[in-house]
Amino acid sequence: MPEVEEAHPTLNDGDVVKGAEEEEPQNDEKALDDPTPLSKNAQKKLLRQKRYEEKKAEKKALEKEHKKKEAERKRKEWEEKLANVPEEEKVKLLESRKNLRKERMDQRNEEKEKKRERLLKTKQFGQNVVVDLEFSHLMTPNEIHSLVQQIMYCYAVNGRSSSPAHLWLTGCDGEMGNQLQRIPGFDKWIIEKEKESYIEALQDRKENLVYLTADSENVVEELDLNKIYIIGGLVDRNRWKGITMKKAEEQGIQTAKLPIGNFIQMSSSQVLTVNQVFEILVKFLETRDWKTSFFSVIPQRKRCQADSEEGNANDTLQEENEENDDQIARKKACGENEAPCNTLET
Ligand SMILES: C[S@@+](CC[C@H](N)C(=O)[O-])C[C@H]1O[C@@H](n2cnc3c(N)ncnc32)[C@H](O)[C@@H]1O
User: Fold this and answer.
1) What are phi and psi of 31, to 5 degrees?
2) Would residue 100 count as lying in a domain?
3) Is 63 a domain residue?
4) Considering the entire predicted model, what is its pTM?
5) Domain of life, per the record (predicted)?
6) What residue numbers bound the domain in which 285 lies?
7) At 249, is the pLDDT very low, low, confident or very high (cuts 50, 70, 90)?
């Protein structure tokens, strides 16, 4: 998985994409036309992040090696076991292993089918959520890569949810479209993929479009099935401050922010990543409770100490957990796909 931005979940099944998290918004009014160059602090942070990524890559390689050795050890152990039992026993052992594998496979297929049914039902009757992919020209290749990872994660989280949303990817064109096409199994995803913008694709429902943006003065109280919520498909560390608000205003569509401030005190900005916002929406569909949704998705280090459920957890521990969660998330996200997951990494 290359560099800085990747799927990186924390807290239960909550997903946080490490490195894709937003920095403090820069108080620079000209930001919309001219993104501010990195400050010294931001450069330091970037360097720290780079080191963190290197450490993570090292750890990943070690884990891969360990896994390989472990698999080899188990294979040998199994062969020795077979070699040391009478023929009759050997047949029984082989049969029992075959049955166990079949059981697991059946269980997996059953889960897949249930997920398919849930997603198809949601497609007909569920809550529509759009990710607006019209910002590729404002992102670096790494940021685009990160966004693709976030979308993979959104799909994986949605598939596991008992109350999923119906996901739309609009403006699915150019480099963004190409990268999405490279996701193994993408063609089979139960979502809407549109090359067009949401404003064209959903023109007859324009009055129901609500652009979610941290810069709005309106606050989402409830999710309304008639409304279509739009998330800006952008990984920009808030370099492009206010861009989605400006876009929605120019298009004359409604805007709203998540009610984070009513439930949580954030240690920095309230600008969340695409996958965090998506997962909060999905959690809310499940629980109808914002507080639970925020607490299960927003990482502890982004919350003020007083708001933190585990108060004194230290950052190192948090990072270690996130690294582990990252591995799990990637596996889970990849489990959704038909082909091997490393296709994206090359
Ligand atoms: C990484 S943010 C992009 C920030 C970008 N500078 C902007 O102006 O929107 C990704 C998207 O998540 C959504 N988002 C992030 N934080 C939010 C919040 N607190 N309330 C509502 N939507 C939010 C917005 O749709 C946003 O475009």
Assistant:
1) -55, -35
2) no
3) no
4) 0.74
5) Eukaryota
6) 1-31+126-346
7) very high
Ligand 1 lined by 258 (C-beta under 6 Å): yes
279 located within any domain: yes
Q: Whose CA is nearest to atom 19 of ligand 1?
A: 214
Q: Domain count for the chain, please give it.
A: 1
Which of 265, 270, 277 maximizes ligand 1 atoms within 8 Å of its Cβ, making it the mutation to test the pocket?
Answer: 277
Residue 29 has pLDDT above 80, yes or no: no
**17, 330 contact by CB (below 8 A):** no
Average pLDDT over residues 29-49: 71
Ligand 1 mutation pick, 5, 27, 136, 212, max ligand atoms within 8 A of CB: 212
CATH for 153 = 3.40.1280.30
Ligand 1 close to Cβ of residue 131 (< 6 A): no
Q: Is residue 113 part of a domain?
A: no
Given the residues 15, 215, 236, 326, select the one marked as catalytic: 236
- Decide if 315 is catalytic: no
Decide whether any atom of ligand 1 lies within 6 Å of the 242 Cβ. yes
Q: With cut-offs at 50, 70 and 90, classify the pLDDT of residue 305.
A: low
